[in-house]
Every structure is written in C-alpha cells, then in structure tokens.
Amino acid sequence: MLIGVDWGGTKVEVIALAEDGNELARTRAATPWSDYAGCLELIASLVAQVEESAGRTGTVGVGLPGSLDPRTRMAKGASSTWLNGRAVEDDLRRALGRDVRTSNDADCFAVSEAIDGAGAGYRVVFGVILGTGAGAGVAIDGRAHSGPNYSAGEWGHNALPRPDITEIPGPACYCGQHGCLERWVSGRGFAQDYMRHAQVDLVGPAAVTAREVMAGVRAGDRLAGLIWHRYLDRLARGLAAVVNTLDPDVLVIGGGMSNIPELYAELPDRLADAIFSPCFYTPILPAAHGDSSGVRGAAWLWKD
Predict the structure, then answer these.
(1) pLDDT band at 202 (very low <50, low <70, confident <90, very high)
(2) Are residues 91 and 134 in the same domain?
(3) Residues 153/107, Cβ–Cβ less than 8 Å
(4) How many whole angstroms separate alpha carbon 130 and alpha carbon 182?
(5) What is the largest CA-CA distance in the chain?
C-alpha cells in the first residue's frame, strides 16, 4: 500500500492507494499554522487513521510546500516559512517510525498527472499550480526532475517576463524579491489586481475572490474583462519562458484557476504569440485529479 501526505499551508491531506492506484482511504485536517511539532504529530495521527481504515500499513511519501537542500537535507524555499532550516525528513521518520520519501508538492502534482492523469502518455510533463500561490513541477518519464539544487520547477519565483512600466518593480513576495510570477498569476494575484483597480480593500470583508471576478467577466463587467485579459497576457508571458527553454510535451494546470474553462479556450493563442517559435502545438490540459493530484503524487514517490 502506498500512502501519500500533502503537507499544505492550510491543510494536511493523507491518502492510501493500492498498487494499481485505486484509493483505499483518505482523511484531512487543518494545518496547525506555525506549529512545526504539531504538524508532525498531526501527520502521524492521520497516517495511522488511513492505515486503520485500509487495514494494512504502507510506505509514506510526503509532498512539502518547499524543497530540501540536497546536501544538508534541510528544508528551503517553503511558503510555510517556519519549515525552512528544519531537518524535515529526519523528523518525519522519527514521528512515523519508518523511512519516508519527500518531494516538493508541485513535483508531486506533476508526477501524479504524468502517471495516471492528464499527462499520462507524455514523456515531459510541466505541471503548473495556479492557486493561492503559483508553483510548478517537472516530471520526466513519470518521475520528478529536481535538478542538482532541487530547484527545478520553481517557476513562480521567476520575475514576470517583459514587464511594462506599471509592472515594475511589482508586488513584494515572501521570498524577498519583487514582481515574482506568483504575485501576478496566482488566483490571489488575479483577485488582488482587480481589487487594486476597483479600489476595494485588499483585506477584510470587502475582499473579492477570483471566482467573483470571473463572474463579472461573464456578466460583461468591463473592469473584470480587462483584468482577465491582462491576467492571460501575464500567464502567457510566464509560460512562454518555459516553452522556449524546456518545450515540454504537455502543460497540465491545477489549482483553483484551473477550473476556469475560458483559460483553455483563450490561453493557447496568447501563448502562441508569446513564444519564439512560429508554431505552437503543445496541449494545455486541466489536471485530471484536481485537488487530489498532489497527495496522489506523494504516494507515487514509492512507485519503483
């Protein structure tokens, strides 16, 4: 049995899969924010729950909201910044009483979609998560490609390509830089762009969601439409750098923004105009497993 853990910033989800990928058990709970020891205890508890439900024990793979230094094995680049500098793998092994394999959560997403999702049958899968943040992972032949620095797929922390004067320096990012793609093309970034121009408070009860902005687009709201087209332009510019560099066989989109059907109707032409090549044949597909891709990919870390 293969157990996957998605250690997210807002929730921890655990799934148990049979060797053929069939789901045997699943559970989730809210992440104890900024409580590292509490997270370890919660993960151990949730793993025990799915093992009890499935009636057997299994291997454990964990998707992290960051990655590990390949030499020191300390966590780095985590959006849950209180994980950074921690010996996460060793601590998970102690908490669970067994060996553990870890990978970046976006890499787990890409692996899941490559093995039995929208990217199945494609050799090089670039998986993009457009949710609260914006991340990406690379899967080659069904396995995560991390690189010598465990930095492959950190697409969301590249600067927005070819910014105009209104996009410089760009919003501040938790990583310490300004203008990261994450701040422009995440669902939160899309909604905040609308709020800035609608003069709506960026926090509090007046906050607007990406779903509400898209409702305005469909209702013909002029500002919402302008924000949407600018979002597509920024996303196309960001993905053009990926196509020009890696030219993956397929682009698979996950996260809340992946549920917008207009994305698949309008993004291909925008992306075709933004890349160097005069031709663009790459499929852009929604994730087959939706929000479950990350946790399934974590389980697949033990698929040899």
Answers:
(1) low
(2) no
(3) yes
(4) 8
(5) 59
